[in-house]
Amino acid sequence: MIYQEKFKIGLKDIWKGKEVSNRAILEYLENAAAYHSDSVGYGINTSEETHLSWILLDWKVKVIKRPEYGQTLDIHTWSRAIVKCYAYRDFEVYNENHELCVIASSKWLLINNQTGKIAKVQAEMADKYQSEIDKTVFKEKEIEKIKAPENYKSSIIYEAKRKDIDIIGHMHNLYYLDIAYETLPEEIYQQRPFNSVRIMYKKEIKLGDIIKCNYSYENNKHIVVIQSQDEKTLHAIIELK
Prior knowledge:
Blueprint: E1 3-8, H1 22-39, H2 47-50, E2 52-63, E3 72-83, E4 86-94, E5 100-112, H3 123-129, E6 154-159, H4 173-183, H5 186-189, E7 196-201, E8 210-218, E9 221-228, E10 234-240
Antiparallel strand pairs: 1-3, 2-5, 2-7, 3-4, 4-5, 6-8, 7-10, 8-9, 9-10
């Protein structure tokens, strides 16, 4: 089942000039995924009844042609596979001329809201998503893992604020990209937009947590590693290219 949703690019969604930002792209994709889950009975609107929520684990995004302010985007998304407690979801983003602008893949984990523990996807639930097992946007079906660099060029300290926290009490996934941008040296920050975005989420960040964000550059990729201040807990790794 391929689910479709349209979004119009607004003022807050653009960066320098008129082009849509990577953050806005992620927000559109996230909302399209949420609306799809709503439509099959396993979204935000029914979470109090099902006691289930999807937690995002990975993003892999490639921008092919960057849309601009005022354009209406047509987002296609589908469940690519559901395995035990995991779901893989792909996306295609088209502009008003029906040109493919963005492709993306993601990985999600199902949890029980009451216990906070991992939940297995039951057959009845999986059937409603009608996975498109032969339709993929990247050659690799499994999203590759990211390794943290051994050395860093710079770092910043950040404390999670109320504005960062989502409905389940964790830092919302979009803010990890915001923090990654804040971590970039100024000359690198001004090189935006990056047309390849990879985010691997590992451990949730909660209100008041103080985190250390380390920047490195390896293999033509700008890498931001978000850790606890004592560097004992890895929260996320972001790659930009």
